[in-house]
């Protein structure tokens, strides 16, 4: 059966799931949405940890054209002057300094209070139609991010048009602006389950950091006061509020919380997980975004939703997260619907893995996939979660 997402998955038609077991890997080595580099190393690290052979073993045909070439796109669009791109990133030494300081505030705030190494990013960032006289707060590196994420959007749209499962490997959570917008267009009734410690629902006006990785949900939902330069390809509101459910939230900024409370987005915080248990929370979230239980679904998984005990290799860790089993359960339930069409795995930062910091190599457990190289705990968890979302269960190692 040919894949024709638009006509086949219209408003009223029940979606029967992808017709074939083809997964398209979109390597989005992109970390411009935050002030720390390293998340851009994740796609390569996930591949090195054996992602493709493990997916093949599970019964999937893997299409991986390699990482998107962001630099080429920047140059094409005349943004070459912004290269090298790491000018707004803080150093790993500064990150360690923040950790040693006791981490009373998040890294972005700490870096700001301790003389950020990078500029405000405001230069040349004027929003569309805005005069510089009363310039609104500017997303750090805004136009460059818009340009880069358009490439993600295009690649995900292509994967969806081919009827393939769109697996986006971040990168920071910025990439979801590209992937989710593309999938919402390909699958009009798309329900999005967003697993995260943070809501990423700040607008440029509410954001304490002006980092875009804290904003993609707000942008998709249409909450930005104005369209920032470079984002013409993103239709604000492309994701209806009621089609979004969060699980795992525990670090929300005050004005961000106000926006969420006033919206129709479905929020399941860690407290809901405590109260109802993960089984019930997943059921409620799926019911909320897809009341008929017959529409296409997307999983946007930020590894910082997981407790730092299990996922230490990420930039914005927050205590009190999902356990190893809870996060796997979520991924497994998504696979069991048979209607998952895409997944983002974001915010894995191999540079922050304990093994890289001198803590010794992560040890393999006896029952782990021998084909997966044991690079580091968070990278390995990332591979495992992708496998769970694509059908691996305790009783079945083939998607059936
Ligand atoms: N994708 C992430 N890790 N987001 C963290 C966002 C942190 C904070 N709420 C901010 O807006 O900056």
From TrEMBL:
Belongs to the arginase family. Its cofactor is Mn(2+). The keyword Repeat does not apply. Pfam families: Arginase. SUPFAM superfamilies: Arginase/deacetylase (SSF52768). Keywords: Arginine metabolism, Hydrolase, Manganese, Metal-binding. Binds 2 manganese ions per subunit. It is an enzyme of class 3 (hydrolase). It catalyses: L-arginine + H2O = urea + L-ornithine. GO terms for biological process: arginine metabolic process; urea cycle. This is Arginase. Pathway: Nitrogen metabolism; urea cycle; L-ornithine and urea from L-arginine: step 1/1. CDD domains: Arginase (cd09989). PROSITE patterns: ARGINASE_1, ARGINASE_2. One of its GO terms (molecular function) is arginase activity. One of its GO terms (cellular component) is nucleus. Its EC number is 3.5.3.1. InterPro entries: Arginase, Ureohydrolase, Ureohydrolase_dom_sf, Ureohydrolase_Mn_BS.
